[in-house]
Design goal:
The protein has about 140 residues and is an alpha+beta fold. The chain has helices at about 5-20, 30-40, 85-100, and strands at about 45-55, 60-70, 75-80, 105-110, 120-125. The protein is globular, with a radius of gyration of 15 Å.
Length: about 140
């Protein structure tokens, strides 16, 4: 399965169930590991802590960032376990999308009272197939929205 929208639906449903069953209170690393294993059990390829190299003005920085979860090489998930997400968390995912050339990513915060309040969908250079989502930010101008 390489359709990011299909992967997104499965990832959201899986993460919602984890939040429903466990609730807030674990460390981020625990939610990351549980989510990764649950998604793998559904036949999804999940890579954890994927390093990203960046190049800027002839300077290369090896492993400048690490993606928490990369699903089937096409969907990024940044896992958080904090009381409130900050704008920098969305900007972080948008940066990952820009440097990987991918289009769709999520911030999934397991630390909030409801999973819905901790979920943020981020789309970079979206096509019309992504345009229907009301949870969207564009990175085409370098600013998060």
């Amino acid at each position: 399965m390489t359709d990011p929208e299909e992967l997104a639906a499965i990832a959201i449903d899986t993460a919602f169930q984890i939040h429903k069953d466990i609730g807030p209170g674990l460390l981020e690393s625990a939610y990351e590991m549980i989510l990764a294993e649950k998604l793998r059990s559904k036949g999804i390829q999940v890579d954890r802590q994927v390093p990203i190299d960046i190049k800027y003005d002839g300077i290369e920085v090896k492993e400048a960032y690490r993606i928490d979860l990369l699903l089937n090489h096409c969907l990024i998930i940044e896992v958080k376990a904090v009381e409130q997400t900050q704008p920098v968390h969305a900007k972080q995912v948008l940066t990952y999308l820009a440097f990987t050339g991918l289009t769709l990513g999520f911030v999934m915060n397991f630390g909030m009272g409801t999973f819905k309040d901790g979920l943020r969908r981020l789309v970079r250079n979206h096509s019309s197939s992504f345009a229907s989502s009301r949870l969207r930010a564009n990175h085409s101008d370098g600013a998060a929205g």
